[in-house]
Amino acid sequence: MKAFLWRRRGLGLALLALAVLPLIPPFDAENLRRWLVIGALLAGWAIAFDFTAGYINVVNFGFAAFAGAGGYASALVTIHYGLPIWMSMFAGVLLAGILGFLTGVLTLRFRGIYAAVAAWFLGLALLGITRNVSPITRGPLGLSVPTFFTTDSNLPYYYVVLGMMLVTYLVLKAVTESRAGLAFRAIGQNMEAARASGVNPTRYRILNFTLSCMFAGWLGAFYAHYYAILTPDVMATSQTVQVLVAAYLGGRGSLWGPAAAAFPLVFSTEWLRSNLDRFPGLDLVVYGLALILVMVYYPGGFAELVHAIRDRGLRVRWGRRPLRAQPGEAPAVLSDVPD
Amino acid sequence: MSVAVQRLGREFRSPVATGLIVGVLALAIFGVVRGGTFILVDSLVTGAIWALVAAGLALTFGVMGVPNFAQGEFFMVGTLSGYLVYTALSGVQGRPYVPVVTILMALLVGFVLGALVDLAVFAQMRRRIREGWVMNTFVVTVGISVVMINAHQLIWGTDYKGIVAYFNGPPVHVLGVSIALDRVFAISVAAVAIAGLWWLLSYSRIGRAIRAVSQDEPGALMVGINVGRMRTLTFGISSGLAALAGATLLFQFPSFPFVGVKPLYVAWTVVILAGLGNVGGAVVAGFIIALLEANTGFFIGSAWEDVVPFALIVLILAVRPTGLFGRAVRSVWEQ
Amino acid sequence: MLRVTELDAGYGFLQVVHGVNLQVNPGELVALLGPNGAGKSTTLKCIAGLLRPWKGDIAFQGRSIGGLRGDRVNRLGIGLVSEALNLFTGMTVYENLLMGAYAVPDAEKRRRSLDFVFGLFPRLAERRPQLAGTLSGGERKMLALGRALMGGPSLLLVDEPSLGLAPKLTQQVFEALRKLSDDGLTILLVEQNVTATLEMVDRAYVLEQGEIVLEGSAQKLSESEHVKNVYLGAMA
User: Fold this and answer.
1) Of B77, B249, B305, C24, which has the fewest CB atoms closer than 10 Å, so is most exposed?
2) What angle do CA A229, A250, A338 make, to 5 degrees?
3) How far apart are CA B309 and CA A121, in angstroms?
4) Per-residue pLDDT for A84 more than 90?
5) Is the pLDDT score of A240 beyond 80?
6) Please, what's the b/e burial string for C137-153 (b: 16 or more CB within 10 A of its CB; e: otherwise)?
């Protein structure tokens, strides 16, 4: 038990810090606490996104639509059936999960790019549908959603979403450390080897995708009951891009990296937006560039940086040397074709 | 010439494809009968332009294996260059030539920018990345898209920068429909560009080299083709085409940061319908999608104009991801 | 013309070629023999610029070419017929041949090369407008060889010319190679078919498990005990 906790000390410390943060100045100001809420929400989403992108190597490019669907489902169930919010959130989980499962079944038989594009277009279709079925969703006018608490303070919301983020992490982390998780990794890296070991790639991919969407929907439900208003724009591709940036900058395949990256991302975005509003769009230019640079030169992201420092001190290797291959290094084939 | 037919014949062999073509023709006839030739003409013009953007996208995927999420942004670059050049030249005499110069400048800007992006980003990735090329480049193009959209916003603002028209004159009358001069211009440009692209790929040395790279990369190396340079060139062509499309449609799509969003979706819809990587198919599919959109807009309502193609694409991806004309999709088992 | 010195190469963590030394003089027809997986193709790929060597040097006409990219190697005058042929299946026979002369700027020279190739392989001339993907195995091999010749190389590398061919076609291909060599072209080929090869080439090296174990004239090798026991016996 002690060993288990000691190994998780990083996580424990981080969690403690996050829990205490909103009580310490300057974070006890409501606007900063709001940033913390948004940060934790993005962190949860980034974890769910990374579960798919980092393990089975499929970019769920319609992620925001699944999250939004969860939000709408939860909101509508609360409004029309009067259930307590924590119960109707499961409606969100259910709807998002079903949509994810269907998408997965339809497209995960094929190469990842088709699943990614299918998810993207499904998201766009869902967005359009949500916009058009105004009688149900109130479309662009916005759906008014009941909130968790009656207080104006962000503090209780923060602890709720922090808890949800923690649950998301723990559950998905546990799955990645199970036999299913091994299968995911095998599929993500070497399909042939996975198949030879008796793994059915499609089935595991669907499992992974569905789980990820379920958590997306659950957190989407939080979003609905926090912001108190829902518009179809919550499903927009740009929302998925935000989650994607957090995941890739944080370090694909680590689960904790994306969560860690989410907070600074949110804080800097919000700060830039409120202080440098003479330069609209600057924050996004910076993130776009950061994403490109990370993808090209340091694909492991923040998580890999941390591991490298931990293992080798600060002598970190930047990029991959495109030089003469040494025995034992990755192949240096002069054309891109495998042999 | 017979080679082209031979190749075309191979690609249309599928009964699904033939069935769909027939279905589309039926749709076109239906639309014309119920709604008037206006729909047909409208589709032709829009279709030709979408075909341009989509052809570039197909080219990039076929030759470089890059699913370009930023293709719409090059369209945006085209609208921006078009606007800037046209307003700068607005005092100049020689009316008919000003629009032509404008779009040619946009083509050039798109080409150069595309080539630079390849050199700065994809060439670097080619040297470093071994696995997951398609997914990783997709994410990178998302980053490129974000940078381009917001750079536009940062430097030129979010205002709509448009022009009234390239050509001020009475509309032309064809088949009982009156078409604005600018639309005639647009479809002419598209026709010339598509023909030019076809000629380039089929009969020029460079075009053959590009095809060689997409068909067999070690083979291309073996015959002395500088593969990296061909890829840079290809991306430049692809971006140039998108920019050309943007400048040509400036009268319809004023320039602003998000103007590339719709062309992006449409181009992707077209390319999936045609089959990823199939350039000729993209041209045909461009018209199909335009026809579909026009019919939907006219009969069901413009709010649903966007949803139907998207739903269609999800269906296609589920049932026949190779598209109408594409080569067989490798299943998960064969990655 | 070609000198390979202490070549080490492999894939990933696996070293396939260990300290290989070989040499090809102008006008010679030399073979690199050995069983499957010995590292013959790997060696050839390093020379042709499709694979980066780990260690060692490759010199062509006095100039070091190890690590140069494939297209640069081609433009220096080395042609390759790979094991997989790497034909452009979506292009016609004519287009494939034309692509072979991609790096040849002189149109007249290209035309002469084309005539030469069609003369050498009349079957290809018959199939001129046909798509390469629709050709038979033997025709594809001829096309790959023809394409490599279109570049007017001073050194021709051929990887397993007899692979996948019926004996009669193998005979044809070998005769063509012998004729090319007699006319002055320098050729290095890699083969598993020891008997037929030793009858045709000037000199040969035997590669086993990535190391050269024997070298010498074709005559000497066909009389060697080792070769007779390991290769010729099984081929009886």
Assistant:
1) B305
2) 120
3) 9
4) no
5) yes
6) ebbbbbbbbbbbbbbbb
The predicted-structure confidence for C107-116, as pLDDT tens digits, reads as follows 999 999 999 9
- Predicted local confidence at residue A99, as pLDDT: 94
How confident is the prediction for chain B on average, in pLDDT? 83
Distance (Å) from the C-alpha of residue A335 to the closest C-alpha of chain C?
A: 6
User: Between residues 5 and 34 of chain C, which touch chain A (CB distance below 8 Å)?
Assistant: 8, 10-13, 15
For chain B, where are the alpha helices, taking DSSP H only? 2-11, 15-35, 37-64, 71-88, 97-117, 123-128, 133-156, 181-203, 205-215, 217-222, 227-248, 261-274, 279-299, 307-319
Q: What residues form DSSP beta bridges with A108? A: none
pLDDT in tens, A286-324: 899 999 999 999 888 888 888 888 777 655 555 444 333
Counting one residue from A and one from C, how many pairs have CB atoms under 8 Å apart?
A: 31
Contacts with B218 from chain C: Cβ below 8 Å: 50, 70, 82, 84, 86
How many whole angstroms from its chain centre is CA A2? 30
- B276: chain A residues, CB-CB within 8 Å: 113
Other CB atoms within a 10 A radius of the CB of residue A315 amount to: 7
A131, A209 in Cβ contact below 8 A?
no
Cβ C87–B223 below 8 Å, yes or no? Answer: no
Measured distance between the N- and C-terminal CA atoms of chain C, rounded to whole angstroms: 35
Cβ contact, residue pair A335, C70, below 8 Å: yes
B264: Cβ contacts below 8 Å, ≥ 6 apart:
B69, B71, B72, B73, B75, B145
Residues in Cβ contact with C120 at an 8 Å cutoff, skipping those fewer than 6 apart: C146, C149, C176, C179, C180
